């Protein structure tokens, strides 16, 4: 692992403006804003896997997409190597996008049903590389075999494959350009248990073989912990805790991380299910709570937490927590 | 957990050699193929398996909800002494919803989007609870509020007239549970109650089911693919593969000392937080095609312990009263 950060995310925010209706405009109502990601900063080193966990709606997928500029950030910047991704224009952006790819969550929705696998996997090559048909075929065959499919599969269409196989096709498409950095957005959530394990193992193997750097987004904490070097915990658009996997699992500091980890049913706990149960749902990002956003559900919230927003502080070496405790 | 008194009584639900088939254009799909399950009063049973293993279809058969092209081809389902398979639709309605209730997997599509929550809860009461209907609208409403409070919906009185889309995923799952429980059934079947939910909400819903089970003294069946859920919340476990039960026993035994290669494979394929350094071992290959089921062991192609003796129909091997394994390779003691 190289020490220089490959990816730097600095104070990134992403707000979505809600559409206001005619009536809203007439009554001069304020336009609603969803603060999906607010003021997030972190770095990922070359060859590292950063796991991003949190409940649905906490902004983890949005963050992944902002990094790839599939969404334009509202504020902040993203740097990849020496280049500032968020400042690049068309051609330069295209150049850098070949080094940054994404694997999507839903293997049913992310593949074009009208194209054979061959075309799906070779499309990135057609866009980014000028190579002749033979070279291209060779590359596609090599990649499809790397992800555990066969050459014969190339002529088939997505509907002829199972969920696990489709996800393999999605992985092949993301890796065909030999990117340096891949955002994995819940790549195994839609799959069955035994198939999930196959894909997790495949991703671990490909990461080693192709020396990739991953941002691994998932709500399945065991899978994230298994594949990652460090973990970042998100709540309502903010990172509340970030650190090495072992450190986070054995010594979680933020009350939300503690509750999240405690909530995972574990195979070892036969017949035991006593746990701190978090009350209520995640608040709406349309009107997030003041101060610490977790204070409405936090078992140890004090007065200060309702008013003042905590910032990330280093509690132990490279273990950062945003909490007033 | 192995409360032996529980097992002295006759089973509440007894499924014997149940076969549920679907006639499709591609051929006969044997979704459930000879399933035996006993469920005792007050017990919590976990049913584990991947998609296509027949776990949902087994219990949809119990509920009498198999529609064409599906049919219950053979076998018997006895609930509290009554045979369910031959019942007329009218007779079935006296049991379904009243004695046995089921919550379906996807809470968003299972609720009617155009009917207010109160009316969806009241519908079950109107159908099954004559006493409360006699007491009038106000009584029904009070009971509905009581059910919503029981499942922990905050501010229940003011949310009665809301529609399903106004609730979050976890809340919708609670509403389904409230509907299922409103006639105080003796058996609750929860089909993947938490699959679509976040872990924190999953914990809320599962603890809720566990608490209510104690309060109402009901039997619960949890259908899931999450082995952690089975391990923490159930007394006994049934593992299904390609329409058959491959292993059943007390949860403690199935989880800590699985006998069938499929159960062993499943347990080895999930990463565990306590042992992250240990590599996971996925089960190779895919589930067999239910139309072209082999005559030999259905797990054969993916099994690491296969040999010549597996190339025949494998009977269920009875190890003791509660432990059964469908594999010739298992030793009785381990």
Radius of gyration of chain B: 21 Å
How many strands of chain A? 12
**H/E topology pattern of chain A:** EHEEHEEHEHHHEHEHEEHHHEE
Query: Tally the helices of chain A: what do you get?
Result: 11
Task: Tell me the strand percentage band of chain B.
Answer: 15-25%
Structural class by helix and strand composition of chain B: alpha/beta
Q: Name the CATH homologous superfamily of the largest domain in chain B.
A: P-loop containing nucleotide triphosphate hydrolases
Number of strands of chain B: 12
Alpha carbon gyration radius of chain A: 21 Å
Mean model confidence by pLDDT of chain B: 90
Under CATH at level 1, the class of the largest domain in chain B stands as Alpha Beta
Going across the biggest sheet of chain B, name each strand in turn: 6-7-8-3-9-10-12-11
- Please give the count of helices of chain B: 12
Termini gap of chain B? 21 Å
Structural class of the helix and strand makeup of chain A?
Answer: alpha/beta
How many domains of chain B?
Answer: 2
The neighbouring-strand order within the major sheet of chain A is 6-7-8-3-9-10-12-11
Helix content of chain A: 25-40%
Instruction: Give the largest chain-chain interface (CB within 8 Å).
Output: A-B, 43 and 49 residues
Supply the key terms.
heterodimer; A: 325 residues; alpha/beta; eight-stranded mixed beta sheet; 32% helix; B: 334 residues; Rossmann fold
Folded structure, characterized:
The complex is a heterodimer of chains A (325) and B (334). With 325 residues, chain A is α/β, with parallel strands linked by helices. Chain A has a domain at 115-177. Chain A has helices at residues 22-26, 60-67, 90-97, 117-128, 133-146, 163-175, 193-209, 221-227, 245-250, 255-262, 303-307; strands at 5-17, 33-45, 49-53, 75-80, 83-84, 100-103, 181-185, 213-217, 230-235, 238-244, 313-316, 319-321. In chain A, the strands form two sheets. Chain A has an eight-stranded mixed sheet, with helices on both faces. A four-stranded antiparallel sheet of chain A has the order 2-1-4-5, with helices on one face. Chain B has two domains: 4-99 and 185-325, 3-Layer(aba) Sandwich (Rossmann fold), CATH 3.40.50; 106-184, no CATH class. Chain B has twelve helices and twelve strands. Chain B has an eight-stranded mixed sheet, sandwiched between helices. A four-stranded antiparallel sheet of chain B has the order 2-1-4-5. In chain B, helix 4 (117-128) crosses helix 6 (137-150), helix 6 (137-150) packs across helix 8 (169-181) and helix 8 (169-181) runs parallel beside helix 9. The mean pLDDT of chain B is 90. The interface between A and B is large, with 43 and 49 residues.
């Amino acid at each position: 692992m190289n020490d220089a950060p490959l990816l730097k995310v600095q104070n990134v925010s992403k707000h979505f403006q809600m559409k206001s209706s005619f009536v809203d405009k007439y009554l001069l109502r304020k336009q609603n804003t969803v603060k999906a990601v607010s003021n997030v900063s972190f770095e990922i080193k070359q060859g590292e896997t950063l796991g991003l966990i949190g409940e649905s709606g906490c902004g983890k997928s949005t963050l992944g997409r902002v990094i790839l500029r599939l969404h334009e950030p509202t504020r902040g910047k993203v740097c990849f190597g020496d280049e500032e991704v968020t400042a690049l224009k068309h051609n330069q952006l295209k150049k850098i996008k070949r080094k940054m790819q994404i694997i999507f969550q839903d293997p049913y929705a992310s593949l074009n049903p009208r194209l054979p696998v061959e075309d799906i996997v070779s499309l990135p090559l057609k866009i980014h590389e000028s190579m002749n048909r033979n070279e291209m075929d060779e590359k596609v065959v090599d990649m499809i075999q790397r992800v555990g499919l066969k050459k014969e599969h190339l002529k088939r269409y997505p509907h002829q494959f199972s969920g696990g196989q489709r996800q393999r096709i999605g992985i092949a498409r993301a890796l065909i350009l030999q990117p340096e950095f891949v955002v994995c957005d819940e790549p195994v959530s839609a799959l069955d248990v035994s198939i999930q394990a196959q894909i997790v193992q495949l991703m671990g193997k490909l990461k080693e073989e192709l020396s990739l750097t991953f941002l691994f987004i998932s709500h399945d904490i065991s899978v994230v912990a298994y594949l990652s070097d460090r973990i970042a915990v998100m709540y309502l658009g903010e990172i509340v805790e970030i650190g090495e996997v072992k450190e986070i699992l054995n010594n979680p500091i933020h009350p939300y991380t503690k509750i999240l980890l405690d909530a995972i049913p574990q195979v070892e706990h036969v017949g035991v299910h006593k746990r701190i149960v978090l009350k209520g749902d995640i608040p709406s990002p349309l009107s997030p709570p003041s101060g610490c956003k977790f204070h409405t559900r936090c078992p140890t919230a004090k007065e200060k937490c309702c008013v003042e927003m905590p910032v990330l502080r280093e509690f132990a070496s490279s273990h950062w927590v945003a909490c007033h405790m | 957990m192995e409360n032996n008194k529980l097992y002295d009584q006759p089973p509440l639900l007894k499924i014997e050699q149940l076969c549920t088939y679907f006639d499709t254009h591609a051929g006969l799909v044997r979704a459930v193929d000879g399933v035996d399950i006993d469920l005792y009063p007050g017990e919590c049973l976990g049913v584990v398996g991947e998609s296509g293993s027949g776990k949902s279809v087994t219990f949809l058969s119990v509920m009498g909800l198999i529609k064409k092209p599906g049919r219950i081809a053979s076998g018997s389902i006895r609930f509290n002494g009554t045979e369910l398979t031959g019942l007329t639709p009218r007779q079935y309605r006296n049991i379904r919803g009243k004695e046995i209730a089921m919550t379906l997997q996807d809470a968003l599509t299972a609720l009617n989007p155009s009917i207010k929550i109160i009316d969806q809860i009241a519908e079950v009461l109107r159908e099954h609870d004559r006493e409360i209907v006699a007491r009038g609208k106000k009584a029904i409403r009070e009971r509905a509020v009581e059910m919503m409070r029981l499942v922990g919906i905050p501010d229940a009185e003011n949310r009665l007239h809301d529609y399903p889309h106004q609730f979050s995923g976890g809340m919708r799952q609670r509403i389904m549970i409230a509907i299922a429980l409103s006639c105080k059934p003796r058996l609750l079947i929860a089909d993947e109650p938490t699959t679509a939910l976040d872990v924190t909400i999953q914990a809320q819903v599962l603890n809720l089911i566990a608490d209510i089970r104690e309060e109402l003294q009901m039997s619960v069946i949890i259908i899931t693919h999450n082995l952690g859920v089975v391990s923490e919340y159930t007394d006994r476990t049934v593992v299904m593969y390609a329409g058959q039960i491959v292993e059943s026993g007390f949860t403690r035994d199935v989880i800590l000392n699985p006998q069938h290669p499929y159960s062993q494979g499943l347990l080895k394929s999930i990463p565990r937080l306590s042992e992250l350094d240990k590599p996971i071992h996925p089960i190779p290959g895919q589930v067999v095609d239910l139309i072209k089921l082999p005559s030999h062991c259905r797990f054969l192609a993916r099994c690491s312990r296969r040999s010549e003796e597996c190339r025949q129909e494998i009977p269920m091997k009875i190890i003791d009263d509660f432990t059964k394994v469908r594999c010739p390779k298992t030793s009785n003691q381990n």
